[in-house]
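Troubleshooting: if your tokenizer reports a length mismatch, compare your output against this known-good record of 331 residues.
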Amino acid sequence: MSLPHRMTAERRLPSRAACRLLACARRVGIALAALAILLPLRAGATDVADRIIAVVNKEVIMLSELRTEMEPERKRLSQQYRGADLRTRLQQAEYRTLTRMIERRLQMQHAQTKGVEASDEDVRRTAMDLQQRGTPVNIDDPNEKKALKEQLILMTLENREVRTGVMVSDADVQRFYQRHLSLFMLPEEYRISQILMMSRKGESRAKLRARAREVHDQLKKGGEFDDLALRYSDAADATRGSELGFIRQGEMDPLIERAVAALQPGQVSDLVETADSIHIIRLDEKKTAQFRPIEEVKNEMQGLVFQEKSADRYQQWMTDLKSKAYIEVKL
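Known-good structure output:
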């Protein structure tokens, strides 16, 4: 397919002019309102003739290609949204999809200049590995084979030009730890014991409450919590004692957690009623929220810092590729 006249060899824009055009395109953006015309937003919309919607150096992206790539997302959004909300979300999805397609074309062009390839054997081995992991891949389908080959090429390219140059120092780890302390906070922990009272066959809620109140009254009169738990608790492990060990904040029933949070070590709660039972809780020990020491999470943080720096380096890499390219969005 021939390119627009301004893209022929006779009238190829010089690099500075191309950069100015690209800068202008970025200022204008791939306008969401304009992108609304690229895909039909309602079922039954009239099809339009296929046409060029973007030029990336010497390659073009066709409207039909965008439609094909957008189809799964269009179906998903159409099932969840209607009216103006659907139109807005489709416009946003079109913008993301076209941007992604443009970037992928740039990367594939760059891979070609760098001699990055993926052999049929690479594709076959990767397909087998994916299938063993539960992801169906049919490399007899030319489209699936082409997509998988392209993914392998892009992964290899990004590894060489982005990830290989990423280094994580101790100073990087320290800075990340200070910026993201909340990621490494351990919530409060409570070591508790309980007496669990459950409804017996045919027993009303009022009778269950009365039984639990009798046990609670014995505690107030000086009864031993563990002895009463052994005698009255319906917990499966009551014969081994009432202690439940340490439980972190957020891991308990909200009603029980609120009751526990109001206690000091050694105190016993009032009756705590849940859907099918009544609990009497004793707080044995409380550990305040604390941060995991940096030495304990260093390996974990190195992975997080690597991901963060890789993402930053990837964005810079893409910016550099775009700055050297001729990109035109044809609305």
